[in-house]
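Researcher: Let's do a round of design. I'm pasting the structure tokens now; please hold your answer until I've finished.
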């Protein structure tokens, strides 16, 4: 029964969307993957963006027959954004259509880092390992008024459109906390027993807002969004 329901529900939703005249599109807008849905004068959008920064370092000291040391550190930082937008069409002709929009964006951050080292001094050996991962699920938020939002028809394809929009006004804020943190460590040497510790997942509620700012990016290159959409 569950399998049948899982097939019926998407089919009903798809039939409803087609019956109501919905058109879907997928594209790449301002470094984000975007999915837009249009019906009449109304458009909605879900966008997902992100980038990953990796940093790794290692070091080795070797004095044969006396001392050996090696370590490695790593940090992987992933920034993600999830955007939800609503647009209302103000004008349309055969070449382009003009809309105004309201967009909410939640920014996430995942940071993973580790430290490993091993040293050997004569008969004494020592091994140590630490790792930490923190998921900031309410890293920051942003509400934007987008105007103009213009979709320009490609001369070579009726389904392909160029997108141009400007962040006319925005307000953004951050929270003091709003994260889940995982830690783990282990340590062992020839003179001590093996030990390990850490926390499988401590949760910190968002707490108070510690930073609010607003303005307009209409005169900034960073406030201009460019991209492509393919309607199907």
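Researcher: That's everything. Go ahead.
Model: Designed sequence:
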């Amino acid at each position: 029964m569950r399998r049948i329901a899982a097939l019926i529900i998407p089919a009903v939703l798809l039939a409803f969307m087609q019956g109501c005249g919905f058109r879907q599109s997928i594209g790449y807008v301002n470094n984000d993957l975007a999915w837009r849905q249009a019906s009449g004068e109304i458009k909605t959008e879900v966008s997902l963006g992100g980038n990953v920064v990796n940093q790794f370092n290692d070091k080795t000291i070797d004095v044969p027959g006396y001392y050996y040391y090696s370590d490695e550190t790593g940090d992987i930082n992933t920034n993600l954004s999830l955007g939800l937008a609503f647009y209302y069409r103000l004008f349309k002709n055969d070449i382009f259509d003009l809309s105004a929009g309201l967009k909410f964006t939640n920014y996430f951050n995942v940071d993973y880092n580790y430290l490993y080292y091993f040293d050997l001094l004569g008969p004494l050996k020592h091994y140590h390992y630490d790792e930490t991962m923190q998921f900031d699920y309410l890293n920051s938020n942003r509400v934007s008024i987008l105007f103009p939002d213009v979709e320009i028809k490609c001369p070579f394809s009726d389904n392909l459109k160029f997108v141009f929009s400007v962040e006319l006004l925005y307000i953004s804020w951050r929270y003091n906390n709003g994260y889940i943190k995982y830690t783990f460590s282990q340590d062992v040497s020839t003179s001590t027993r093996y030990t390990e510790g850490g926390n499988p997942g401590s949760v910190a509620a968002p707490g108070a807002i510690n930073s609010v700012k607003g303005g307009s990016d209409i005169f900034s290159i960073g406030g201009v969004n460019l991209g492509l959409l393919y309607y199907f």
